[in-house]
Specification:
The structure holds two protein chains of two kinds. In chain A, 0% of the residues lie in helices and 46% in strands. By secondary structure, chain A is mainly beta. Chain A has one domain: Immunoglobulins (Immunoglobulin-like). By secondary structure, chain B is an alpha/beta fold. Chain B folds into two domains: 138 residues, Rhodanese-like domain (Oxidized Rhodanese, domain 1), CATH 3.40.250.10; 123 residues, Oxidized Rhodanese, domain 1 (3-Layer(aba) Sandwich), CATH 3.40.250. Chain B has eleven helices and nine strands. In chain B, strands 1-5-4-2-3 form a five-stranded parallel β-sheet. Chain B has a four-stranded parallel β-sheet with strand order 7-6-8-9, with helices on one face. Chain B is globular, with a radius of gyration of 18 Å. Classes of the chains: A mainly beta, B alpha/beta. At the A-B interface, β3, β4, β5 and β6 of A face α3 and α6 of B.
């Protein structure tokens, strides 16, 4: 669509109409992301050492309130852009559920989120 | 309004797959989920391509909406059941559009795509073909849409409900935490707005909480049911979810969605902004 406002090359949209939808997971970090400023929490959801695709992963703040939710990629990957501090990751899937606490600072914090059958 | 004429359960939906006069519509910003598998018989609406004007910042006008629904094979008297990912945010946004353009019978699927998947209900990649219709929309019902001047004039008089996460409300984050944080707007919230994150209205599986829980939620947060209410978030889809709760489930009379939301308000010159966890004063 020639009038599209999103660049296919970069996936970047003008700020004013940038949506709030969760993007596809498992893609490389966009080159515009400055890791001296962003606090990236990323990782993989697993069940019995196998990655779980299509799991719903939410990020909860220090009070337990929802901050964001994404669906894991084919390789089980997820990624959030948070702020320095303590967060909880919570995964829901047909393969089970799982929780993990994470303390993150600027840069990338990697987490493995293991599911247990629910 | 009430739950019965605004919402359908996944059980009801599964029993009514393929029923005459019922059209399931999956709505999302990223429609790759639809392409990988959707509710049998469901058509897709792409929030960005189908519902937003491609040039100006606004949504589709009456004629564009009529053309879209006609092409999708949706008739004026069809019962439209909307669902999607992202906890039904974009489906709720579409529900608000359908109401704005006067569609009578529209419902949201409780729990959306997430509950459907977690319940292991059927999905298909088969794309239905529906004969085109001649859909006729009403003029937009602006009693459910707020614009910026009304929002600024409402500070300290109407209920303003900021449905973003507490960190976005306070100005500690500028966007939901699945997106990079560098954006042009000033952080913070509209003075006197209460913060009731959309997520407090939903269970973990995406279904809505009970009417009793929802009434208690907004009462405790300080919403005055005798006053008009304007809900906002960052671009207007999470606040559609809360608009749906307040007007369609709980039956508050005068509830508007401010779709300009923080990406507009936070860029306005000269308007007041409050930082931190307290609503602030007018």
């Amino acid at each position: 669509m020639s009038a599209s406002t999103t660049s296919p090359a970069t996936g970047l949209a003008p700020t004013a109409d940038a949506s709030c939808g969760a993007p596809a997971q498992g893609l490389p970090l966009p080159p515009s992301v400055d890791l001296t400023k962003e606090t990236v929490i990323s990782g993989v959801v697993t069940a019995g050492d196998q990655p779980v695709s299509g799991a719903y992963v939410r990020l909860l703040d220090a009070t337990g309130e929802f901050a964001a939710e994404v669906v894991t990629s084919a390789a089980g990957q997820f990624r959030f852009f948070a702020a320095p501090g303590t967060w909880t990751l919570r995964a829901l899937s047909r393969a089970g559920t799982g929780d993990a606490q994470v303390t993150a600072d600027r840069g990338i914090t990697e987490v493995t989120l293991a599911l247990a059958a629910s | 309004m009430s739950r019965d004429n605004a919402l359908v359960s996944a059980d009801w939906a599964e029993k009514n797959l393929g029923a005459a006069g019922i059209v399931f519509v999956e709505v999302d910003e990223d429609t790759s989920a639809y392409d990988a598998g959707h509710i049998p018989g469901a058509v897709k609406i792409d929030w960005k391509k189908d519902l937003q004007d491609p040039v100006r910042r606004d949504f589709v006008n009456k004629q564009q909406f009529e053309a879209l629904l006609s092409a999708k094979g949706i008739s004026n008297d069809d019962l439209v059941v909307l669902y999607g990912g992202n906890n039904n945010w974009f489906a709720a946004y579409a529900y608000w559009y359908f109401k704005l353009y006067g569609h009578e019978k529209v419902r949201l699927l409780d729990g959306g795509r997430k509950k459907w998947e977690l319940d292991n209900r059927p999905l298909t990649t088969e794309v239905p073909t529906r004969p085109a219709t001649n859909y006729v929309a009403s003029d937009p019902d602006l009693s459910i849409r707020a614009f910026r001047d009304e929002v600024v004039a409402s500070i300290g008089s109407k209920n303003l409900v900021d449905v973003r996460s507490p960190d976005e409300y306070a100005g500690r984050l500028l966007a939901p935490a699945h997106l990079p944080q560098e954006v042009a707007q000033r952080p913070g919230h509209i003075p006197t707005a209460i913060n009731v994150p959309w997520s407090k209205a939903a269970n973990e599986d995406g279904t809505f909480k009970s009417d009793e829980e929802l009434r208690a939620l907004y009462a405790e947060a300080g919403l005055d049911g005798s006053k008009p209410t304007i809900a906002y978030c960052r671009i207007g889809e999470r606040s559609s979810h809360t608009w749906f709760v307040l007007r369609e489930l709980l039956g508050y009379q005068d509830v508007k969605n401010y779709d300009g939301s923080w990406t507009e308000y936070g860029s306005l010159v000269g308007v007041p902004v409050v930082l931190g966890d307290q609503p602030g004063s007018a």
